[in-house]
Amino acid sequence: MGVTESLDSTDDRPDAAMPRRAAVRTAKLASLPLGIAGRAVGGWGKRLTGQSAEEVNAALSAKAAEQLFEVLGTLKGGAMKFGQALSVFEAAVPDEMAEPYREALTKLQAAAPPMSARQTHRVLAEQLGRGWRQRFAEFSDVPAAAASIGQVHHAVWHDGREVAVKVQYPGADEALRSDLRQLQRFARLFQALAPGTEVKPLLAELADRMDEELDYRAEADNQREFAAAFAGDDQVLIPPVVASAPRVIVTEWVTGTPFAKIIADGTTEQRDRAGHLLAEFHYSSPARARLLHSDPHPGNFMLLEDGRLCVIDFGAVARLPEGAPPQLGAIMRLALEGRSTELLDALRDEGFVRPGTVLDAEDVQAYLAPLVAPLTRERFHFTRRWAQQQALRMGDTRGQDFRTGRSLNLPPNWLLIHRVTAGAVGILCQLDAELELRAIVEHWQPGFAAG
C-alpha cells in the first residue's frame, strides 16, 4: 500500500474523524440535492440578467462539485464510499460539466479529513492490545492517506519491514448504515451526477456489502487469497498481509504511481500500460483466484517502477468458485457477431428480460453492439468521448436505446459483475488508454472464444 495523497492536519474533537449523529449527517447529505436544486433556480435568474447559459452552467457545476467534495469527503462512511463509486463514472460526464466534477470526484478517490493521533492510538490499543507500540519499530502519527472508512499510516514493523497500517474510523459502522439509508432516499436526485449510471442499484449493492467492508479481518483474508494466487507474478503485485484485527490491517508498504496521478498527467506509455494491466487483472482474477476485486476506483491501483500493477483494498470481493460465468462470454460473442435472435434468447435464459416482456431482437442488438465495440478490433482506444457517447445514447429519453434499456432487467446475480466491469471500463476511459482488450477477453473469459 502506498501514499496516494498526503494528509497532515489533525482534529482532536471526539466526533472529528467521522460525524456520527444521524441528524447532523442527514442534514449534510440533504444539503447536496437541495443545494444543487437551489443553484439551478438561481441560475435562471442570472440568465435573465444577461449571462449566457454556458457561463451559468459552468458556475453551477463548479459550485455543485465543490459542495459534493466538501460534504461527502467530510462525512466519509457511506457518503465517501458512494462518492468513490461515482468517481469511476466521471468520464461519462459531458465535457462542459466534467472539469469541476472531475476534480472533486478524483479527490474523493483518495482524500478525506484525518482523525487525530489520540483517536488513532485508541483504536490501535483496542485492536492490537495496549502494547501495540512494541509491534512497531517506528510509527508515523501523520496519516499518509485516507479512504472511506479508514486511514493509512506509514510504519516500520518490528522486524524492519516497511508497512502500511489501515485504521478504521471510530463509529464507521454506525455512520455507514446511516449514510446509505439517507443516500437511497436521494438516489433519483443524485442520478444527475453520473449520466448513464443506475444510482439506486449501486447504493443497494453498497448497502448489501456493508458488513464485509467493515470487517478488516475478512479483508485481510481476501488479500491473502489474492496474494497467494498472484504470488511471483510478473505483472501484478498484491502486498502481503502482516497482521490484522477487526478494525486494523497491516500490510507491506509499496511505493508506486497512483492511477489518479497517471490520469492527471501520465505519459501515453504509462496510460496504455496501466490500462492493459488493469484489464488483465480484472479478467484473469476469476480464473486465477476464483475472486473478483469489487472496488474499482483509481485510488486502489498503482503502477510500480518495474512496470507491475499494485492492487490494494480488498474489502469488497466477489467469490466466484466456478470462475467467471461462461454465459457472459457467450452473450458478448453473440452481440459481437450480430446474432440478434440467439442473443435475445440467451438474455431471456439468464433473466435479463422479464417474463412477458416483448422486445425486438434487432433493438437489443443495436443497444448492446456499441458496448462490445472495444472487442471489434485488435486494439481499442478508451476515451472520455466514447464513454460520454454511451451515456448520452442510453440516457436519451427520445431514443430507442433508452426504451430498450428500460425494458431489460439486471438480475441480482449479475449486478456485481456488471458494476465492476463498468467501473473498470470507466477507469480505462479516464486513463485514455489504448490496449488489446480482445486478446485479453479471448484468453480469460469463458464462453467467449469463437468456435
UniProtKB/TrEMBL annotation:
InterPro entries linked: ABC1_dom, ADCK3_dom, Atypical_kinase_ADCK, Kinase-like_dom_sf
Keyword check for Magnesium: no
Domain of life, source organism: Bacteria
Segments forming domain ABC1 atypical kinase-like: 107-325
Keyword Ribonucleoprotein: no
Pfam families membership: ABC1
Alphabetical UniProt keywords: ATP-binding, Kinase, Nucleotide-binding, Transferase, Ubiquinone
A GO MF term: ATP binding
SUPFAM superfamilies in the record: Protein kinase-like (PK-like)
Family membership: Belongs to the protein kinase superfamily. ADCK protein kinase family.
Protein's UniProt name: Predicted unusual protein kinase regulating ubiquinone biosynthesis, AarF/ABC1/UbiB family
Organism of derivation: Amycolatopsis marina
